[in-house]
Amino acid sequence: MTATPGLTAFQLASPDLLRSVFRRHAAGVAVITAGGEAGPVGFTATSLTSVSADPPLISFGIGTGASSWPAISRTGHVGVHILGEHQQELAATFARSGADRFGPPTAWHEGPEGVPLLDDVLAWLVCRVVGRVPAGDHRIVLAEVVLGDPAGAGRPLLYHQGRFSGLRD
């Protein structure tokens, strides 16, 4: 094993080590939505990634124990919403287990392909699911962009050190 100069302590790989390291990684905040048999579902995601420009593909991770997973595992289309710094409460609602995510004050409407679309976001996409890849206790969902709108106003919401925040100049 190669030692890194100046580092004297290290931890062996574990879920806690991974969580601790990624708390230091600032990530953009998105909400993923889909139509479900019992109504719309959605969850807050910080794992959103642009995969390919041609064709336009994105990916995100979802735990197989998540309440949204049964719908995401079967749906043909998802909504991807980039949240603004003014939407910390919305992000918290979609991250909270057992919350009424689509009840008031959440503003949304049904979009193309029956995808629930959140109002007043920085940007949104409707994507066709093209794959679900097993990855430990999660699945990596690959989806091809069908349409979207990048024209929302504001600055992005970030997640860092276990809390939501905005950019600083």
Automatic annotation (TrEMBL):
Superkingdom field: Bacteria
Gene3D superfamilies with a match to the protein in the record: Electron Transport, Fmn-binding Protein, Chain A
Class in the EC hierarchy, top level: oxidoreductase
Oxidoreductase found in the keyword field: yes
Residues in coiled coil: none
Molecular function terms, GO-annotated: oxidoreductase activity
Keyword field: Oxidoreductase
Pfam families listed in its UniProt record: Flavin_Reduct (PF01613)
PANTHER family linked: FLAVIN REDUCTASE, FMN REDUCTASE (NADH) RUTF
UniProt protein name: Flavin reductase family protein
